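Hi again,

Forgot to attach this to my earlier email, sorry! This is the prediction with 2'-deoxycytidine-5'-monophosphate bound. I've pasted everything inline since the attachment limit keeps bouncing my files.
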Amino acid sequence: MSAEESRKTPPQSGRAVIVAIDGPAGAGKSTLARHLARHFGLLNLETGAMYRAFALKALRAGLPLDQSSALEQLAAETSIRLDPGDEENRVLLDGEDVTGLIRNPTVTDAASRVSVFPAIRAWMVGLQQQQGARGGVVMEGRDIGTVVFPNAEVKIFLDAAPEVRGQRRYEQLGQKGVVAPTPPAEILRDLRARDERDRNRADSPLKPAPDAVILDSTHLTLEQALAEAEKIVADKLRTPGTRS
Ligand code: DC
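Structure tokens for the complex follow:
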């Protein structure tokens, strides 16, 4: 299917398609979402970056990350926008471009902590629904297929064994020219801690939507995973109305 076709199909609900990509940290969601967006001519929205931007603001304000009420107050005076580009999203926090400030371990850990609170999630989900309302998007996160867009035309749950995700994350950091890379064992430990929090929070825990296609990339090369996902999207878009 051409990019032009997928931009237009299938407007079952009066909007263009939504492709939801969910899965645990380090599964390769961002790479996959970016690829699918490019391939099918869609916009790519990384919802994790929104939680990260909010976490950065909370850290800057010196707020305790375990108190919902203070965080809620902060959320009430915060604006967050994703500006999708060809590569990663530009993230605007109260108008400031914080794209380069939200990928470090401190913000990563804080994002996972602030995202457990129902009030924060409800606010974020609203923002994400606004950003994706017109469709024509690949939206990536933890709860896109279950909560943000439960009627998304395509849902992929991308998974991989923790050890494999840890190793990939390590290599990714190395490639970005980090001078003293975090040891793989430490990356794996942080990843497991984040998995634990993301999967076990009471409000919208990370889990596949009942109608999601599970794509386990543990034994796949990047190329194989991308090809598999392309096929899932193309098949779904070719047969609109087959989702349950
Ligand atoms: O995808 P990421 O690693 O950038 O996400 C950072 C944190 O944000 C992650 O630990 C959990 C949270 N998150 C979430 O709860 N729901 C989403 N849709 C996206 C991210």
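The chain is about 50% helix and 15% strand. The longest helix spans residues 184-200.

That should be everything now.

G.
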